[in-house]
Amino acid sequence: MTLFHPSPAQVAAIARTESPVCAFLHDLDALRCQIRSLTAPLPAGTEFFYAVKANNDPRVLRALAPHVAGFEVASSGEILRVREAVGPGARIVMGGPARTEGDIRTLLAHGVERLHVESLHSLRLANAVAERSGAILPVLLRVNLAGPVPGATLTMGGAATQFGIEQASIPDAIATLRDCRALRFEGFHFHTVSNNRDAAGHAALCAAEIDLARAWAGEHGLDLRVINLGGGWGVDYADPAWRFDTERLASALRPLAGSGPRLQFECGRIVAAYHAAYLCEVLDLKRSHGRAFALLRGGTHHFRLPSSWAHDHPFHILPREEWDHPWPRPEIARMPVTLAGELCTPKDVLARDVPVARLRVGDLVCFEMAGAYGWDISHHDFLCHAHPERIFLDQGRMAAAEVTV
Q1: pLDDT at 405 over 50
Q2: Do domains 8-25+276-370+374-400 and 41-272 have the same CATH topology?
Q3: 67: which residues sit within 8 A by CB, 6+ positions away?
Q4: CDD domains given for it (predicted)?
């Protein structure tokens, strides 16, 4: 699997205007290669859904559509985004911890094939809405495991979180579901950890979840059709060359797949992260209390991921030789620099005290691995700064993002 680096020609095309450079650049051809490399090793009978929350741009959704089983969404808005971008034939499954009557009506109206239910109240609510609509809604019960679970960047199960039905209450959920005549049980949903970089440990967790689902089905006489194992396949922002061992995960799961219930995954970050870059022009350089700061056209209002995860995002510097001002060009050399954005808050930082060989006002900083949970989770209109350009490379052509509401 490759890591996207914009070519000099691509950078020059973005930097063609007099305005300071600020842009996301996505390589859709590389994205297609990425999804094929992730799904190819999976055992027969396994389905791979793309988690739309990672990046919901219509061009990204259309590029992935031929290569995934469908799309996992967490809101009514994401349902509409998939339908508008990909069309009525795309398979959609829906999860998320806070469901409303409007969500249930929307998923029924737009042919969502399954709801992942996270509480007994949500079961009853979904049943009431489906019953009034004269529909039968397939559901999975999302499980919050008793734990402990293997370490990962984020944990949604095996601990006190707002996600899923705690393991001890699953028998109660099954009993409640039997009285919900407008719902049809199809299986269990486990999305326990996110960004797990241990493929062997993740495989062991998945195997334990499969065993638990089968045991519950046998104990309660359930027709177990689907076991959704969530996402959680990790990336390493500290080491962009590192890759999750998909082959090892697939090999460990192969004996458990095929006969019986379908296994499903719903991954986002590992799909979208690697093949986009965020380019920001250096607007100013300054020293303060013994530290050096580069102020960028851009910041966490476009790319919140480094702030939300409290990490130094990987980057490299793209020098530009143009300098049109009569005064000396500010620069720093052979020292650590903190890359800060244009917001009026000290939290607007993308990397802290990272050594650089040379950096000048007017140079570009290229943040790698910017395709997942960047633009989509950011507070775009804080201070009403201009949005970045969003450019897509597709079969050798560059195109701007479509306007979405």
Answers
A1: no
A2: no
A3: 32, 35, 36, 39
A4: PLPDE_III_PvsE_like
Q: Which CATH class is domain 8-25+276-370+374-400?
A: mainly beta
Average pLDDT, the chain: 92
Please give the distance of CA 55 from its chain centroid, rounded to a whole number.
6
Task: Please report, for the chain, the start and end positions of each structural domain, with discontinuous segments joined by +.
Answer: 8-25+276-370+374-400, 41-272
> What pLDDT, in 10s, does the model give residues 269-319?
999 999 999 999 999 999 999 999 999 999 999 999 999 999 999 999 999
The CA distance from 365 to 307, in Å, is: 17
Q: Which residues are identified as catalytic? A: 344
Predicted confidence at residue 8, as pLDDT, reads 84
pLDDT in tens, 259-276: 789 999 999 999 999 999
Q: Is the whole model's pTM more than 0.85, yes or no?
A: yes
